[in-house]
Design brief:
The protein is an alpha/beta fold. It has 17 helices and 12 strands. The strands form 3 sheets. Strands 5-2-1-6-7-10-11-12 form an 8-stranded mixed beta sheet, sandwiched between helices. The relative contact order is 0.10.
């Protein structure tokens, strides 16, 4: 039995505790500094508000002030399940309390800019920890199609863990794999993390397919006849994901695997990015859609577009990445979504 410490009490962090708990590990979830009332709510009702299900009875939920106390106990794996914006906070907090080289697994999906270069979250966290005096780290990344509610309901779920040392990825996979949580491994850390991030941008585009399928048509016609358009957008999305990933020295095989195509599929069918795309496809601007339709939702693809948009447009032109640049223009410049079909490859 291992001791697993999950930082972040949101949907994904809590959902990840299910396979860990089912493997009879000792599991503690530490909330962020913004989740104190949330932790109280879970502990009083034993139900996770977002997942809408009972939490495992043997999983402890503690507030952020207990982090040092829990780290000082023997911890076999630290799991990071905060938002991409929370990586800075969690790196700073861990820097205060980590003393040993404890394996870390990042569930968070995102991409940053550092020194005018794209930076995957494994590298960002390693850099921040090193800056704060933690020189030796062992950080892996998780990718692939995994909706939190599905995992919390123990449906068959396949994901990929990545570490440049494949032995470490295999060790973590063995630790948490169950008969429903199937973990594959990869040494393509950059490819897995890049795909996990940029697929959210393309999921918005796929979500927009109904609105983009034909102009001046009734809603009924759009609802019944958008699949041709969706298929064309899917093919182009994969093409552009390969271009972007290979430029960052990731592997094409990763794009066409769980971390790329697999994650894009589930994000299109059941994610917030696809939902935002539906509104963009209807001609609603991003700010209007966010304010009136999704005020309380985190739209990861939009956050990523704002984070890396200017660099993407300096690195690629619209002829090379017509979908990605179009979404970036829509999100960053408040422009109506427009597709340059003639640039498709």
């Amino acid at each position: 039995m291992a001791k697993i410490l999950i930082i972040g009490a949101g949907s994904m962090g809590t959902a990840f505790s299910f396979p860990c708990s089912d493997k009879n590990h000792s599991v503690v979830i530490i909330g962020t500094h913004l989740e104190n009332s949330f932790i109280d709510q879970i502990n009083s009702k034993k139900i996770h508000p977002s997942l809408e299900c009972d939490v495992p009875i043997n999983v402890k939920f503690l507030k952020s002030e207990k982090l040092a106390e829990e780290i000082n106990k023997k911890v076999d794996l630290i799991v990071i399940a905060v938002s991409s914006k929370g990586i800075d906070w969690v790196s700073a907090e861990l820097s205060k309390v980590i003393r040993n080289k404890i394996p870390i697994l990042i569930l968070t999906k995102g991409l940053a800019i550092n020194n005018n270069k794209y930076e995957v979250l494994v590298h960002k966290m390693r850099r921040l920890l090193k800056k704060n005096g933690i020189k030796e780290t062992n950080i892996s990344a998780a990718g692939g199609p995994c909706l939190a509610k599905g995992l919390a309901n123990r449906v068959h779920t396949s994901v990929v863990f990545a570490n440049s040392d494949i032995k470490i990825a295999n060790q973590i996979a063995q630790l948490v794999s169950t008969d429903y949580y199937h973990v594959f491994t990869s040494d393509d850390v950059v490819g897995v993390e890049v795909c996990a991030a940029i697929k959210n941008i393309f999921a918005m585009m796929l979500g927009a397919s109904e609105g983009l399928c034909i102009s001046n048509a009734s809603k009924q016609i759009r609802e019944k006849n958008y699949l041709n358009t969706a298929a064309a957008l899917l093919k182009q999305s994969i093409h552009e994901m390969i271009i972007f990933t290979e430029k960052e020295k990731g592997e094409k095989e990763t794009v066409i695997g769980l971390a790329g195509v697999g994650d894009l599929y589930v994000s299109d069918k059941g994610g917030r990015n696809s939902k935002m795309g539906q509104y963009l496809g209807q001609g609603i601007t991003f700010k209007e859609a966010k304010k009136t339709k999704m005020p309380n939702d985190i739209v990861e693809g939009a956050d990523l577009a704002l984070e890396i948009g200017s660099k993407v447009k300096s690195d690629f032109d619209i002829k090379t990445l017509p979908l990605m640049v179009s979404i970036i223009n829509t999100i960053c410049d408040e422009k109506p979504l427009k597709i340059e079909w003639n640039y498709f490859k």
